[in-house]
Each structure stands twice: as C-alpha cells, then as structure tokens.
C-alpha cells in the first residue's frame, strides 16, 4: 500500500474514466494521494494534550496578588474587579389580582346545616347557670321507681340477673359423631369413614369422639364392636353432635328393627337438654323427609352437591 490508496484503486479509476495518456494517470494518482512529493522540512511537533487533572493553584500568601491573565484589562479606579457573581432573580411579593369572572376561592362559606342557637334560649343554658349533677342515692332511685310505676300501672321493676346472649356455632367444645352401621347404611360405609376422617382433621383428634350404633343410639352405642356397646351417654354441654344416619327413611321395607320416630325424638330431646347442638346428614332427598324431622332436627341432604356453606347455614 502506498499512501492511503491501493494501486488497484488507481487502475479502477483510470478504467472508469477512460484514461489514455500518462498525464491522465498522474492526475488520477494525484487525486487519490499517490505520487505526491514527500515533505523535506522538519516534522511538526504533536499538539500537547490538555491535562486531565489541572494543577491546583498555590495558595497566596499574605499581601500577595495573583497575576492577571493576558488579555484582561485592568479595572478602572473605583470599579470592582470581575469575579464570580451569583445573580438572584427579584421576587415580587405583591398579590395576584383575582379574575373578573366567578372563582371558587371567592365564594362565600355555605350556611351551617343546623341553625345556630342562642346561649339565652332555655334549651341551651350557659355553662355558668348549670347546676351540678346529683349523685343518685337510694332515695332518689326509689322516687324514680315510684314515678315509673305511677305512669304505668302494674309495672314492676326487677333486677337484671342474666344478660341476653346469642348462641354462635363453634367447635371449641369438641364434636361427637354418631355413625349408623345398620343395614340401611351399608352402601355408605366408605362415605361414613371419609366424613369421620375429615371431621377429625377439622376439629382435631383429641376433640372428636366417634360412637357407632345400629338404627338408634338409645339401643346402645360405642367406639368398638357391638359386644362393647353401652347405653348412650350425652356429651358435655356445648358439644356439637353430628348424626350420620338415614333416621329410618331408607333400607329394607320389611325391616323389623327399623327405628321408630319416637326413638329419634327422645334422642334429640336428650341431646338438647344437656346444652348440645345436634345436626344430621341424611342420605335421602328432602322431599321424602317426614314432618317430625323438619320440625325437630336440623338436617342436611347428604349428597354430592352438599357444600360447607349449606351445612353451616343449616346449623346456624
């Protein structure tokens, strides 16, 4: 390579320009930077690069002055030397003139929602005219009681011995499960086991007790086989009793051991007498429920469409 162009570039340019003489070739080479005479003078010195970190000025001593740079004239007598000046924009403290049109800032305050009372009206006497309140004593209470009894004849004042309370469904006192293992519940044996496991997971193993019976709990119930069943005992007050039974609504038609409605009525009364709350899961359509079941025991249809919200709504 000679200069900054190849010789091939000269040849291409000569062919493109149809160069026919040596003068044309020299002219093309000169245009491409080839064939120029080399400079015979001294090589110029490179420019000095500015310092990246300028040198720090030496602090002036007492009575010394820094020399004035070239090109800056000396200030006239009485004139201050130029330096770094911070120009501040003047701030006008005058208020803006409100616009001629209606403005929300100039609207009057709306009147109060209630009419102002005068301090001299009888309904609101001044504070210095109010009498100190008396502390009600026994005589004052008797006088007030006589007034009340005088306004309403036959009214007797009685002390409040018990506060009214509303029962709330809770599993804090545990759950007792009464699972029916009679012939009418044989098709649902696996479902009964699944429900018992879910209740134990919800209320805890220590707070759940499962008793098995056949047709009616009054005939005997227990946690083990039938040989170990004993007469049914109602749990402590506050316990929720979950009954898993058909209540005699399903099963063989000619079943001589089917539970009578009176047995279930006696069972529900005994449970409620001890302060417990019974609820039943019945594997029968609601249209087949007898009248005594609807009026005595809160029950839920045991089906695939049964939800937790429906069960809680029935219990509450």
UniProtKB/TrEMBL annotation:
Which residues fall in a compositionally biased region of kind Basic and acidic residues?
44-53
Q: Where is this region: Disordered?
A: 33-159
Could you tell me where the Basic residues compositional bias lies?
A: 140-155
Name of the molecule in the record: VWA domain-containing protein
- Record the organism: Streptomyces triculaminicus
What is this organism's lineage? Bacteria, Bacillati, Actinomycetota, Actinomycetes, Kitasatosporales
């Amino acid at each position: 390579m000679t200069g900054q162009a190849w010789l091939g570039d000269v040849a291409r340019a000569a062919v493109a320009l149809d160069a026919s003489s040596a003068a044309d070739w020299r002219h093309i080479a000169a245009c491409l930077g080839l064939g120029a005479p080399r400079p015979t003078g001294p090589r110029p010195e490179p420019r000095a690069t500015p310092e990246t970190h300028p040198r720090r000025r030496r602090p002036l001593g007492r009575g010394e002055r820094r020399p004035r740079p070239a090109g800056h004239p000396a200030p006239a007598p009485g004139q201050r030397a130029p330096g770094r000046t911070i120009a501040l924009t003047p701030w006008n403290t005058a208020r803006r003139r409100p616009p001629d049109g209606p403005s929300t800032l100039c609207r009057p305050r709306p009147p109060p929602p209630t009419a102002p009372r005068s301090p001299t009206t009888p309904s609101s006497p001044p504070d210095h005219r109010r009498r100190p309140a008396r502390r009600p004593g026994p005589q004052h209470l008797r006088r007030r009681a006589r007034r009340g009894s005088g306004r309403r004849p036959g009214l007797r004042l009685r002390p409040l011995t018990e506060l009214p309370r509303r029962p709330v469904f809770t599993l804090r006192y545990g759950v007792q499960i009464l699972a029916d293992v009679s012939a009418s519940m044989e098709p649902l044996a696996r479902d009964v086991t699944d429900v018992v496991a879910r209740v134990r997971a919800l209320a805890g193993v220590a707070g759940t007790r499962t008793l098995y019976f056949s047709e009616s709990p009054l005939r005997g119930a227990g946690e083990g086989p039938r040989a170990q069943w004993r007469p049914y005992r109602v749990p402590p007050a506050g316990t929720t009793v979950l009954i898993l039974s058909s209540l005699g609504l399903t099963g063989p038609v000619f079943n001589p051991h089917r539970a009578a409605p009176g047995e279930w009525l006696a069972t529900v009364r005994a449970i409620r007498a001890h302060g417990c709350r019974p609820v039943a899961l019945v594997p029968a359509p609601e249209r087949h429920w007898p009248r005594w079941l609807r009026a005595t025991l809160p029950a839920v249809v045991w089906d695939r469409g049964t939800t937790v919200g429906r069960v809680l709504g029935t219990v509450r």
